[in-house]
Amino acid sequence: MPVPKIQFLKGVGPKRAALLAELGVDTPRDLLAYYPRAWQDRRLPGDAEKGAPLEEALVFRGKVLSARELRTSKALVIFKAVLSNGKYEVEASWFKRFSWRYDVFASLKKEVREGAEIWIVGRPEDALFPGRVRVEEHYPAGPAAEAAHVGRIVPVYPLTEGLSGRFMREAVRSALAQMGGETPECLPEDIRSRRALASAAQAGRGIHFPGSLFELESARRRLAYEELFLMALAWGIKRRQLRAVEKEHRYELRRHLLTPFREALSFEFTPSQKKVINEIFDDMLSPRPMARLLQGDVGSGKTVVALSALLLAAENGRQGLFMAPTEILAEQHALTFERLLKGLPVRWALLTSSVKGPARKKILEDAAEGRLDILIGTHALIEESVKLKTPGLVVVDEQHRFGVRQRAALRAKGDRTDALIMTATPIPRTLALALYGDLDVSTLTGMPPGRKPVKTESLNEEKAFREARLAASVGRQVYIVYPLIEESGTAGLKAVTLEFERLREVFKGYTLAVLHGRMKPEEKRKVMEDFAAGRTRVLAATQVIEVGIDVPNATVMVINNAERFGLSSLHQLRGRVGRGAHESRCLLVADLRADGARERVQAMCSTTDGFLISEKDLALRGGGDPLGLRQHGDLDLRLADLSRDSALLRQAVEDRDAVLEKDPRLALPEHGPLKARLLALYGARWDLIELS
Ligand code: ADP
Ligand code: MG
After folding, report:
1. Could you tell me the distance, in angstroms and rounded to a whole number, from the CA of residue 298 to the centre of ligand 2?
2. Distances from the Cα of 644 to the Cαs of 213, 565, 595, 626, 649, in angstroms?
3. N or C, which end of the chain has less CB nearby within 10 Å?
4. Is 668 part of a structural domain of the chain?
C-alpha cells in the first residue's frame, strides 16, 4: 500500500509539505509521531480541574461590545476591541504595521465585529492592568476553534519558519481524523493490561489533544513505555544474538606475557582491579564472545586492566584493537604502552589519521598478515582498510565519546571477537541500563592507593594563578584550561590563544605551551610529549585535555570560565590532576551569576565522587536530555525521560525479559505487530539479523 503523502492532507499543500519535510514529516503518520514539546492549558478557568495553566497565557471568550482602529504613529496601527463574557470585560489589542496599499485589518474587522462571539489568546500588556490584552491568536467561537485551539488543553509544537502553531494543530487534527482510527497497536495485550497502559489509539490522540491533564499523562506514559520497551527489546535481542555464537578460538592462560608484565609494573593491582580482570578473563576464556562495559571513575586505573586483556589475547595469538576517542589520547596510550611493554615480545603500533603513506601501508599490512598483536588508534581503526588476520579483542576507551553505531562498526571487525567497552563517566544505573543495555557491567571501585583527593575551590583568577605559580615553583606542573581556542564574539569568554601572551607574563621563568584541537597532530604530539616528560611546566589548553591524559606530576588545574562547562566535563577535567602522590588542587574561576553556575561549582567543591557528580548532573539538568543523549544518535527517545522514567524503564526491561523468554524470535502471531515495529525502528541500525 503506498504511503499517503502529507501534501495531500487537508490544508497542507506543496509549500507547507516542503516545510514539514524539513521537520522530518513526510506522511500523516509522521505528523502524528511529531510530538508536542509542551501543552498549554487553554481551558477557561471555570472548567479547569487544576488551577495553574501549563504555560502562562491569557485565554478569554467573550462578545465584542465595541471595536475601533487607532493610528498612533506613521508606522503603526492598532485595532482595539472590548470583549465581555457577562462578568468581565477585556480590552483586546492587535498591533500591525501600517500600509498605504491595503487595509491591514480587513479580515480582522470581519471576524471581530460588534456582537460577534470570539476567543482570544494573549498576554496582558501590563502586569498592572490584566484586563488589557495583546492578542496573539483569536478565533470565532464555535466547534472548529474549540476542537483544536481554545477552550481545551492545546499542543505546542516545535516549529520552523513559515509553519504556525495554528497550522500545525489543524494539520494534526486532520491527520488524526484521517488516520486516528487505524493506529496500529504494537504492545501485546497482556503487557498493556498489566501495566495499565493506554491503547495506541488513545495515546496517539491524547498526546496531541488530551481531554484532561490525566489523559495527557496517561498518553505520555504509554508512549514513553513503548519507546523504552522497544529499546530494551532491541538490546535484549542483540545480546541473545551475541550469546548464541561461539568464538572460533579458545583461550588459555599461558602467562608468558601477563606474568612479566605484572612483575614489571611499579605497583600492585588493587583488589578492585583484580576482581575486574578476573571477570574479563572469565568472559574471554569462555566460548561466548565477551560484551562487557568497564566503568571506573577518572584515574581509577582502567588502562592497565585493558592492557591485561589485550595481553591475554596476544598470549593466545589473537590480535587486539584499542580505540580511543581523540588522537591525543591515542598517542598518550601509545606512550603508556611503550613504557609498560618494554622488553616484552609484544608487537604493537599506533594508527591515527595522521599516520600516512608508507608508514600507514606497513601497519595495515602487518595487521592483516598477523605481524601485529595490538593496534592502538582513533576512529581510524573502524575504517574498512583496517583488517586483522586473527581478531580477538576490541577495546573501546572512553565509550561515552562514541555512539552505538561506532561500537557496532568496530565489532564488525570480527563478529566473534570479545569487546571491552570502557567509560569514565560513571553513569547512574538507569542510564547505564539505557545506554548499554546489551552489555555486562564491571565496575572499578575506589582509586589506586596513595591518591589524595583533589581539593577543589572557587577563586578569582589572580588567586588561582598565584596558587598555580606556587606549585610551579616547587617543581610541579599545571594546566590552565580555557573554553575557547580563539575569540568567538561570545562576550566574557576567554580564549587560550589570546590569553597565552598574558600567561607568559604570569608564569615568567617557566616553560609554557599551548594545546588545542585545531593544532596539527605532530604539534599536539610534541606538546604532549614535552609536558609528559616534564619539559614544559605550564600547559594552557582547551577541553581537548579532558580525557585520558595522565601526567602524575601535574598537580594544579585552573579552569577559566568554569561556568561554561557542564558538571561531568568539569569532573573529567579535574581528573587530570591528583594522579600522583602529591596533593593536588582544582581551581575554578567562574562567573557565579551564570545560569546554574553556583550549583555546579558547589557540587565540584563538595565531592570528588564521580557517581555523586553524575547524579547531581542529572538532577541539575533535570529532565529532557540528560548527558546530551539525543545528540548521541543512540537512543530514539522522544517522550521517555531517563531521569524521570526510571521506574518505567525497569518495568520495560522486566517485560522484555518475559517476552523474550517465551518467544525469543518474536515468532508468535501475537508478537507480529511488535516485531514489525521493532524492525522498522532498530532493524537496520542495530543489525537485528536474527529477526528478519
Ligand atoms: P583511567 O581509569 O582514568 O583510564 P588510568 O588507567 O589512566 O586511569 O590510570 C591512572 C593512573 O593510575 C596511571 O598513572 C596508572 O599507571 C596508575 N595506576 C593504575 N593502577 C594502579 C595501581 N593499582 N596502583 C598505583 N597506580 C595505579
Ligand atoms: Mg583512561
Report:
1. 7
2. 18, 24, 22, 10, 10
3. N
4. yes
